[in-house]
Amino acid sequence: MLSKAAGGRPAKPSFVSYVSPEEIHIKEPAGKEVNPYLLPGELLLCEASTVFKYVQEDGSNRGTYGKLVCTNFKVAFLGYESASDDNEPQFKNKVIGENDITLHCIDQIYGVYDEKKKSLYGQLKKYPEKLIIYSKDFRVFHFCLRCTKEEEVKRIVSGIVHHSQTPKLLKRLFLFSYASAAPNSPDAKNRTVMFDTFKDWHEELERTKGNVKYEVVSVNEGYRVSEKLPLYFVVPKPFLKSVTESILVHQGRGIPIWCWSCHNGAALLKMSPFPKEQDDSALQMPKLMDGIYKTIHAPPYEVLKMDDLSSSLPSLQDIQTAYTRFKQLFLIDNSAHFWDTDVKWFSLLESTNWLEIIRRCLKKAIEVVEQLERQTTNVLLIEENASDLCCVISSLVQVMMDSYCRTKFGFQSLIQKEWVIGGHSFLDRSNHLRKSDKEEAPVFLLFLDCVWQLVQQYPPAFEFTETYLTVLSDSLYIPIFSTFFFNSQHQKDTIMSGESHNAQSSPFRLLTVWDWSVQFEPKAQALLNNPLYAEKPKPDKSQRKTTRFKHHRQLSLPLTQTKSSPKRGFFREETDHLIKNILGKRISKLINSSEELHSNFREFYDSWHCKPVDFHGLLLPHIEGPEIKVWTQRYLRWIPEAQLLGGGTVAITAKFLDVMEEVQKLQKQMDEEHSQTAAEDADAVPTLRNSARLSSLFPFALLQRHSLKPVLPTSTWKDLEDEEDLAKRDDEFVDLSGAD
Amino acid sequence: MMGEEGPPSLEYIQAKDLFPQKELVKEEESLQVPFTVLQGEGVEYLGHANDAVIAISNYRLHIKFKDSVINVPLRMMESVECRDMFQLHIVCKDSKVIRCHFSTFKQCQEWLKRLTRAIARPAKPEDLFAFAYHAWCLGVCADEEDQHAHLCRPGDHVRYRFQMELARMGFDLQNVWRVSDINSNYKLCTSYPQKLLVPVWITDKELENVASFRSWKRIPVVVYRHLRNGAVIARCSQPEISWWGWRNADDEYLVTSIAKACALNPGAKAANGTAQNGTSEGNEACDTDFDSSLTACSGVENAGAPQKLLILDARSYTAAVANRAKGGGCECEEYYPNCEVVFMGMANIHAIRNSFQYLRAVCSQMPDPSNWLSALESTKWLQHLSVMLKAAVLVSNAVDREGRPVLIHCSDGWDRTPQIVALAKILLDPYYRTMEGFQVLVESDWLDFGHKFGDRCGHQEKVEDQNEQCPVFLQWLDAVHQLLKQFPCLFEFNEAFLVKLVQHTYSCLYGTFLGNNPFEREMHNIYKRTCSVWSLLRAGNKNFHNLLYMASSEQVLHPVCHVRALHLWTAVYLPASSPCPLGEEGMELYLPSGSQSQEFSGRSLDRLPKTRSMDDLLSACDSSSPLTRTSSDPNLNNHCQEVRVSLEPRYASTDGSELLLEEGSAVAVRETQKMMTGFLFPLM
């Protein structure tokens, strides 16, 4: 028995294969031709066969052979051995496959020449034997081209480099070929408010009860005033009547534009300042505006405080530099690289400055919240163009103060309002057209990362999960959605009218990213919703009609309802002085650097954190050093070394889903018992099967399931046999648990 | 001495009389003691600090501010000094720093003197509060025997742990293994348990020979057996090779015998395994030649022969060699056939102590947030944790995936060794992730095998050597906390349980962690004269239950140990900056009325104001908790309930908080609650 027991174990093969791929017998695509799945309007540009894709660059040379193709939409690798269908991942993107990288998602391309890594760009003289692609969603692909025919190598490498790196015309975006080729599906009913109509703005005003003192204007119809401003926007009520013409001259500069109203009547406004060099006509402007500031500084308006974001927050350049360094920490070539950087992890992280920038944004947002909430002052954010950091801060303030913005539709509407319609230059900031690196800055990602900090600090306060934020950030690079591919509403409208003139067919519609069914099946979409969300006792989001009505009635309330600030007198005397400074653009420094602000902030922050959290009320993030964390799911999701089997936050979610399912079952039983057959349609609780074995990188890790080899004892990869083996083991342990 | 056999009425008078209370020195007549004292606790000084009432009892320092409270056991304090003329600066062993301002220099000096006296090392064990607490507790209840059982006995699973563990792990005591009584009455080794598990063919004579070759006579003995494949974990101290390169044939024989014994007593799987099973195991092994990259082991074993034994030396190679100068050393692979020696490079207690002191400095003097990360890195605390986890993962992989027996040692085998052994056992065996199993684990691998709690925590009488102090156990608890964070559903206990354990490692309210080894504890009769910490952290105490626990999961844990994945244990080191509590009214709203029983009484702690330091650490409930214990004897329950009810008004006077956990554990409980709230609410 003994010898059998010991003999049952074959010698452990402990060698590491150092044979290069060409020495391994290549499994030819035995008659089985692999063809890429093409979207409507997608064209195959070039392809190369017998490309070897490494599973994980750990020196083991494991991987699969397949075809590498480049289309006008993506670069895709098609393995000859198709993955068996039974391990279909639970969470699958319908547009982007496991081995697909959209052209806009390609971050860096490297070629390996004689073991040396070189960046590939422009015209290539020599073609590499290995191609490494880093994508913007942090995947790293290693392709070996040694078995590929030379011509094909030339074509595919230069094709990928050309189509992903060279400047493009806006009209050449895949967006348009897709939209014109795709069947015009009826617009799915979406509760996200798009803010492209007068009505949307009006309703938002009513929702926040800002309609007493602010109104929607349509002066910009036809973009007469400015191409940066949306068609409709909101301004203080007495404002426009006096200065309509001067607005026209200055393209909307100097106008305080309403973002949001606080429950106490204080409002958040934004403004792009006058240009520094003013011509003669511009000199007239200040005088005109003078009156306006005075008006909105006096009752019934609250005291106005100004905040020049360009002086109190890092510049776009800083943000770009920080992110460039930061993302490099997660683009990991192999596990040796991973462990090397682990030793110095914290100092590396700190040197990127990315977390510090997040912290500063959150801090600034808390400062603004303090002024709105406690001091009941209007806050005017000032920034050149008012469409970058203004968007970050104003959106963050709304997420913190308005629980509606923490619901999924509320959050999406917020992004529409502040970012998409608000004129954030997505096209330039993401450098989708590869025109100019100077304009590139991950401002929107910065915002998502800030929101993630809030989500992980207060999970029950948000209707969406971190997975939602992660797939949203990925959607930034999928050029079938129009949401993130224009600089402004004007740009979109112009090109759309131009396109529809050209096309004889009926005008096409562009998809919005908010239609999640384009990317995910309902089952996968369920993972975007937070099962732990503490819903409001009276969910007014589903009954917006009625609440609107309620607000409507409050319209008739007298203006004087808001109590005036005791400090008003003092500030009114200061007004002239303040305005001089606004125009001189020095104002914010005077206000912001004051000691008073700092102590106010501290007091407000501390006192809020002493109190218990109301998940539907004001939410302030912790901003101390240890509380600002790395968004692990987004940045570490493809790194096998970071994976835990049966652990991580996924385990908690899975457990909750289990319990929820059980409770629902019991509830159903109870209902049946009471013969109340009016069973509410069972909200399909997504169940994460086999949750004990679930990877902590779920839902993303499953896409990389074939990766087998653990490099260090810390790695938790298991291959399929291994899992079977574990399953058997579980059975054998049953006795043990019984004995306990 | 108090005799257990004496008539009860007589006894409790004696017990109390041994610990008379000192007279209270009040600085001002009108002052009232601002907290409820524990059994046997007497306030000695009561006075005023700036905007605060300050009190020192024989157990704690209490500072009551207008809206917050600092409450810390005296033994938790490491040092007190006066800073800036008017400020007392108190550094605690669990990394907290307390500051208290006085209005005059004289006053500050006076309190400094009092406090310094109060925290001086005890002259004799009886000076520790645990003894007084126990003696006075005995007086509360008429039924002495029951009372004693509740206070001292941690439960059968702890008392009979050795036998129960042998049975649970399926040792074949007929043919392969035997329990040696060579150490009964600690004749051989005072820092080892009395019963030792060795291969059956090793004689006591041979063990004696081996003992002469190992530091402190800590011989290789077996402490764990993997049920599935029969691989064992053994532990010992370093061999005394010294510069001369001594060998010991019996030692070499014993070490290789352990591997042989494993092959003779194979696990359930190998015994009835089929050929198919064998191949899958082979794949597994092929899949796991990962350790080659870390440990440079070739690990090729011959079919049929016993698996190659892995000797894991927790030190670095250089440290091990350097130890030869002091008479120690490490095994030479040539002399130990079929063994492989691997060095883990874990730092010694002095490096860990330094690291902890840096960490404490960083946490108490929070740097500018922009420098936080590099400050954290410079403490090296997480890096040390990472190495410890790596070592444990290496052991668990060797045992679980390769079926290899492992022998673990460091220098003395009582600091790094229990860290690795106990952590690996948690990874391998779900039993140690239950409350009961965790108690058994701490009792056997830490207490029985002589981790020097007295020296490491600085409780030992008459010893003033700071060099012996080191938060070894705390560091291990931190590692367990990391696992709990990584596998939130696979532990029966919650973070509060661990935080409590940290506190009571140092508080000296319970006798569990007093003394340096089982011999000392027995000599001072500590088991009978103090309460057990497990009477508080008992399995029945719902406050320490992890609501997310999935009892059915049997999996071996494969944690990630890179520094990226490790978290600073804010509940212990930075209690004030942890996420905020829930609203009390919110809580009431969210909880179904049925569940608002005492199990959730921990929720009352949400009502406490948050402070930089600790909230009321241990109040009446700790003293009463043994009474509320739902013991296995159903008759006791009624009786206990009565006592409980009669004590109720007293709780009301202490802020209405039934169970006052300190800040950190409160935070930990809260985190779970937060999730529960979010989850329960939509269903209501």
Automatic annotation (TrEMBL), chain A:
<dbReference type="Pfam" id="PF06602">
    <property type="entry name" value="Myotub-related"/>
</dbReference>
<comment type="similarity">
    <text>Belongs to the protein-tyrosine phosphatase family. Non-receptor class myotubularin subfamily.</text>
</comment>
<keyword id="KW-0703">Sarcoplasmic reticulum</keyword>
<dbReference type="Pfam" id="PF12578">
    <property type="entry name" value="3-PAP"/>
</dbReference>
<dbReference type="InterPro" id="IPR010569">
    <property type="entry name" value="Myotubularin-like_Pase_dom"/>
</dbReference>
<dbReference type="InterPro" id="IPR029021">
    <property type="entry name" value="Prot-tyrosine_phosphatase-like"/>
</dbReference>
<dbReference type="InterPro" id="IPR011993">
    <property type="entry name" value="PH-like_dom_sf"/>
</dbReference>
<dbReference type="GO" id="GO:0046856">
    <property type="term" value="P:phosphatidylinositol dephosphorylation"/>
</dbReference>
<dbReference type="GO" id="GO:0016020">
    <property type="term" value="C:membrane"/>
</dbReference>
<dbReference type="InterPro" id="IPR030564">
    <property type="entry name" value="Myotubularin"/>
</dbReference>
<feature type="domain" description="Myotubularin phosphatase">
    <location>
        <begin position="195"/>
        <end position="635"/>
    </location>
</feature>
<dbReference type="InterPro" id="IPR022587">
    <property type="entry name" value="MTMR12-like_C"/>
</dbReference>
<protein>
    <recommendedName>
        <fullName>Myotubularin-related protein 12</fullName>
    </recommendedName>
</protein>
<dbReference type="GO" id="GO:0030017">
    <property type="term" value="C:sarcomere"/>
</dbReference>
<dbReference type="GO" id="GO:0016529">
    <property type="term" value="C:sarcoplasmic reticulum"/>
</dbReference>
<dbReference type="InterPro" id="IPR030576">
    <property type="entry name" value="MTMR12_PTP"/>
</dbReference>
<keyword id="KW-0963">Cytoplasm</keyword>
Automatic annotation (TrEMBL), chain B:
<comment type="similarity">
    <text>Belongs to the protein-tyrosine phosphatase family. Non-receptor class myotubularin subfamily.</text>
</comment>
<dbReference type="InterPro" id="IPR029021">
    <property type="entry name" value="Prot-tyrosine_phosphatase-like"/>
</dbReference>
<dbReference type="GO" id="GO:0012505">
    <property type="term" value="C:endomembrane system"/>
</dbReference>
<dbReference type="InterPro" id="IPR010569">
    <property type="entry name" value="Myotubularin-like_Pase_dom"/>
</dbReference>
<dbReference type="GO" id="GO:0016020">
    <property type="term" value="C:membrane"/>
</dbReference>
<dbReference type="GO" id="GO:0052629">
    <property type="term" value="F:phosphatidylinositol-3,5-bisphosphate 3-phosphatase activity"/>
</dbReference>
<dbReference type="InterPro" id="IPR030564">
    <property type="entry name" value="Myotubularin"/>
</dbReference>
<dbReference type="InterPro" id="IPR016130">
    <property type="entry name" value="Tyr_Pase_AS"/>
</dbReference>
<dbReference type="Pfam" id="PF06602">
    <property type="entry name" value="Myotub-related"/>
</dbReference>
<feature type="active site" description="Phosphocysteine intermediate">
    <location>
        <position position="410"/>
    </location>
</feature>
<feature type="binding site">
    <location>
        <begin position="410"/>
        <end position="416"/>
    </location>
    <ligand>
        <name>substrate</name>
    </ligand>
</feature>
<feature type="binding site">
    <location>
        <begin position="348"/>
        <end position="349"/>
    </location>
    <ligand>
        <name>substrate</name>
    </ligand>
</feature>
<dbReference type="GO" id="GO:0010506">
    <property type="term" value="P:regulation of autophagy"/>
</dbReference>
<feature type="domain" description="Myotubularin phosphatase">
    <location>
        <begin position="156"/>
        <end position="573"/>
    </location>
</feature>
<dbReference type="GO" id="GO:0004438">
    <property type="term" value="F:phosphatidylinositol-3-phosphate phosphatase activity"/>
</dbReference>
<dbReference type="GO" id="GO:0005737">
    <property type="term" value="C:cytoplasm"/>
</dbReference>
<protein>
    <submittedName>
        <fullName>Myotubularin-related protein 4 isoform B</fullName>
    </submittedName>
</protein>
<feature type="binding site">
    <location>
        <begin position="323"/>
        <end position="326"/>
    </location>
    <ligand>
        <name>substrate</name>
    </ligand>
</feature>
<dbReference type="InterPro" id="IPR030590">
    <property type="entry name" value="MTMR4_PTP"/>
</dbReference>
<dbReference type="GO" id="GO:0046856">
    <property type="term" value="P:phosphatidylinositol dephosphorylation"/>
</dbReference>
<feature type="domain" description="Tyrosine specific protein phosphatases">
    <location>
        <begin position="379"/>
        <end position="423"/>
    </location>
</feature>
<dbReference type="InterPro" id="IPR000387">
    <property type="entry name" value="Tyr_Pase_dom"/>
</dbReference>
